[in-house]
Amino acid sequence: MKTAIVSGASGNLGHAVITKFLAGDYKVIGTVTVNETLSFSSNKNFEAGVVDLTNEEATKTFMDSILKKYKKIDVGVLTVGGYAPGKIAETGIIAIRQQFMLNFETAYNIAQPLFVHMLKQGSGKLFLTGARTGIEMRYSKGMAAYGLSKSLLFRLAELMNEEAKGTDVSVTVVAPSTIDTPQNRKAMPDSDPAKWVKPEDIAGMIYATASSEFSVAKEMVIKAYNKA
């Protein structure tokens, strides 16, 4: 049985990813910020880990314990993040730092030890959750801090894939447009959610890539836009 770590187990995307991987007979460790009951909590192949991913030392301690217990992690899917609107004129450096912490630091703090582990074992597939806004800044209009923080994940993946050359380790960035969640429907009542991408569809794309027996091209981006 393969093992996967998914950050953000209680989030919409994290929940969908974990559900998909459990159905695919993976052992899944999902991170949460507090002890809570999730729909898959009773699944014998699921383990919840309480950790503050904004805290580097706490995340390192958590990862050390997981790696000691499981020895090999095949897949990592990092879904933790946050959104904030705001044009450049409305965005101060504090807002930039907050989005950097939510979208980059929470990913880097767990990706760094996980990536090093995968390099040592010579294999592994790591997925970072970017956004279409991080690919082209024109999509970040009105959400400056968010778009800038997400753009760094693409640069991180490029750097990691460069360091992983000659191994079977690959880092992929998942780039959704707007995800169809209850929160987004409430925040954007005048938008058409039929144009958005469902968490379950993104989870399916990640699972298909993670479970493929073929080598994944380095610097790969999964664009999940639907009709947006």
User: How is the main sheet built?
Assistant: 7 strands, parallel
Based on CA inertia axes, which overall geometry fits? globular
Class by alpha and beta content: alpha/beta
Give the CATH class.
Answer: Alpha Beta
**What is the radius of gyration?**
17 Å
Task: Describe this structure as you would to a colleague.
Helix content is about 45%, strand content about 20%. Strand 1 (about 5), helix 1 and strand 2 (about 25-30) form a beta-alpha-beta unit. The longest helix has 29 residues, at about 95-120. The protein has helices at about 10-25, 55-70, 95-120, 130-135, 145-165, 180-185, 200-210, and strands spanning about 5, 25-30, 45-50, 75-80, 125-130, 170-175, 220-225. The protein has a single domain (about 5-225), classed as 3-Layer(aba) Sandwich (Rossmann fold). A 7-stranded parallel beta sheet has the order 3-2-1-4-5-6-7, sandwiched between helices. Helix 3 runs parallel beside helix 5 (about 145-165).
Please give the structural blueprint.
Blueprint: E1 3-7, H1 12-23, E2 27-32, E3 46-50, H2 56-70, E4 75-78, H3 93-121, E5 123-129, H4 132-135, H5 144-163, E6 168-176, H6 182-187, H7 199-211, E7 220-224
